[in-house]
Design goal:
Elements (H helix, E strand, L loop, with lengths): L13 H33 L6 H24 L3 H26 L5
Helix pairs in contact: 1-2, 2-3
Length: 110
């Protein structure tokens, strides 16, 4: 072994492993959020006419779950860029939730 060099741990240090796990977790969460948002947006775009109460309730549940996940992500992350991105996402989901709730409230009562 050369002087001044030490062997690296093939498993990496704990901080590196935590950073990798955090990055992968964020990427997976972003991917899951994006997939559910894309599914919801696709459904909205294809059914822009009147929606049934059941469909509106389903979409409201999806948006509420997205908001819950975003709040959990925001609590786990730090940094101005992460906070701004999550704040934008939460605001977008809140706007969608309000739109869906208004649409549901406008349905004729049985």
């Amino acid at each position: 072994m050369m002087p001044g060099l030490r062997r690296r741990n093939p498993r990496g240090d704990a901080a590196t492993r935590r950073a990798i796990r955090a990055t992968l977790g964020e990427a997976l969460a972003d991917r899951a959020f994006t997939a559910s948002a894309r599914d919801l947006l696709g459904t909205i775009m294809s059914n822009s006419g009147s929606l049934s109460l059941a469909e509106l309730d389903r979409r409201i549940a999806i948006v509420r779950d997205n908001i819950r996940q975003l709040i959990e992500q925001a609590a786990a992350l730090s940094g101005a860029e992460d906070e701004a991105r999550n704040a934008d996402r939460i605001a977008q989901q809140n706007e969608e939730l309000e739109r869906l709730l208004k649409q549901r409230d406008a349905l004729p009562k049985k």
